[in-house]
Write a structure and sequence with these properties.
single chain; alpha+beta; Jelly Rolls; 2 domains; six-stranded antiparallel beta sheet; four-stranded antiparallel beta sheet; 5 helices; 42% helix; binds 2-acetamido-2-deoxy-beta-D-glucopyranose
């Protein structure tokens, strides 16, 4: 009986937390938008992904002052999840948004993950193939095109050699970490990469923390 009561109590707490987070997501303002990031990325499609990333980063720094991580913190990090392997370069992350460069030099395929977040990828080079649940054919995306992955959706994803893109995610970002870290934790056991991922997320949260503080101060000023 006591166990049942405890389980029910935790389910109620969990539902309440989910409700609160959802309310927050529906009412808060965001730093970036899917359309803005896709437009900025498309401005810089060229011959090499490296050059494109440099130029995208430059434009991001101008447009979103203070929200992009400093150069000394930026690094490419291996990411294993859903059976695929890629590398990511996180330039911004908070509790509700992330922005990163992503891709692979060697073709790779796997499960997209099912998230409490909407994710968009704008392709710079290569090919992104997305196969939706319930469909018998896949869709192919080329440079300049944006691939959307809505929350709750699962797809199969496949990238050819040298596919690179800019990815923006908006939702409850900590909830995506379970999938993002799963293969690193349980399969590759590459704890150095795991450490890099957690370290960059911690740094990004600290940087954004300052903005939350300013927001809260403004809010309290208005309320009083
Ligand atoms: C995710 O996309 C859906 C469908 O467009 C939308 O209703 C929802 O508000 C989006 N969520 C966030 C956090 O942007």
């Amino acid at each position: 009986m006591a166990i049942l009561r405890a389980v029910v109590k935790w389910i109620i707490v969990l539902c309440f937390a989910i409700f609160c987070i959802q309310y927050w997501l529906d009412h808060k303002s965001f730093v970036f938008s899917h359309d803005e990031i896709a437009a900025i990325t498309k401005n810089h499609i060229g011959s090499s992904a490296e050059k494109s990333f440099q130029n995208v980063l430059k434009e991001l720094r101008q447009k979103y002052r203070g929200h992009i991580l400093p150069d000394k913190d930026l690094q490419w990090i291996f990411m294993n999840a859903g059976g695929w392997m890629g590398q990511m370069y996180v330039v911004h992350a908070s509790l509700t948004e992330y922005l990163l460069f992503f891709g692979t030099a060697i073709e790779t395929t796997g499960h997209s993950g099912r998230y409490w977040a909407n994710i968009s990828d704008t392709v710079l080079t290569g090919t992104f193939r997305q196969w939706h649940e319930g469909q018998l054919t896949y869709k192919t995306y080329k440079p300049g095109e944006t691939v959307y992955h809505y929350w709750g959706e699962a797809t199969a994803v496949s990238w050819t050699d040298n596919t690179w893109m800019v990815e923006y995610g908006r939702g409850f970002i900590p909830s995506t970490l379970g999938f993002a870290l799963s293969d690193t934790f349980f399969s590759t056991q590459d704890y150095l990469s795991l450490f890099y991922i957690l370290r960059i997320y911690a740094k990004a949260l600290l940087q954004e923390g300052g903005f939350y503080f300013i927001e809260l101060k403004d809010y309290l000023k208005q309320a009083l």
